């Protein structure tokens, strides 16, 4: 009965309540906190700065991101520090073109030495049979010319893995933004920035992965368009042969249906590497006022095999309503 109540509270569809699932636990190490379903890892949140490979600019170091994210069958679906973009970190969401006063700061392109995003603290951790997760505070740091640092924005991530009694992982990521700057912070309109960014496993490329959005767009024409949901899936070593993620944007989010950045099939000199981002400032800048909270809500349904459109719409309705 308690599981049913949690599902009703979180808006998840109740499909089967007879199947018992493993209890969620969190194991915290020196570098990351990992959520487990029984003995199987679901995701890791990295709180220690990760250095780039030897010989690469140390400015590419970063913390405060999700990696790995695993499928239920154990397939790793995220990637960090790919040679084409060392500043890509699994699931993450820095802002690219920002300004306050006469200062402009890029928190995305780390090698420009204007700013970074850094883990600050765990505010809460929770382990239940029905869900597990944590709240973390992250800081968007800007670098001053004299070598000192300032905080342009505090960001709280609420990460929860939910028990649906299905053979999927359901991950909720709610991000709350708050700037301490006296005159506020402007997030300029640009094709990259904020929301929820995803760099896919190096296994996926043009010929073995697919994209489909709620508006019927595919990888070739999805960039710059808006969507309620996006499915990205590809070849996998699990028994089903495929794994994927259904990304959902909540209707309360800014600029919903939310615009996206999607690399086209011929990206990265024809290699077809997979990158996707919900980008709420794609077409219109966003002005954050001092000490006000701004929230974005996302859900990821991680699966093996295939997901049909009827199931996708059920997940969407549960999340949206």
Task: Write a concise keyword list for the protein shown above.
five-stranded antiparallel sheet, 8% helix, single chain, disordered N terminus, 21 strands, 3 helices, eight-stranded antiparallel sheet, globular, mainly beta, 321 residues, Beta-galactosidase, Chain A, domain 5
CATH class, please?
Answer: Mainly Beta
**DSSP summary, beta strand count:** 21
Q: What summary fits the major beta sheet?
A: 8 strands, antiparallel
Q: Structural class per helix/strand content?
A: mainly beta
* Number of helices, where a helix is a run of at least 4 consecutive DSSP H or I residues: 3
Distance between termini? 21 Å
Secondary structure: helix percent? under 10%
Shape: globular
Overall mean pLDDT? 93
Examine the coordinates and then state which fold CATH places here, giving the name of the CATH topology: Beta-galactosidase, Chain A, domain 5
Instruction: Identify the strand order in the major beta sheet.
Output: 8-9-10-11-21-17-16-14
How many structural domains does the protein architecture include?
1
Low-pLDDT residue spans: 1-19
Radius of gyration: 19 Å
Order of helices and strands: HEEEEEEEEEEEEEEEEEEHEEEH
Binned strand content:
35-45%
The appropriate CATH architecture is Distorted Sandwich
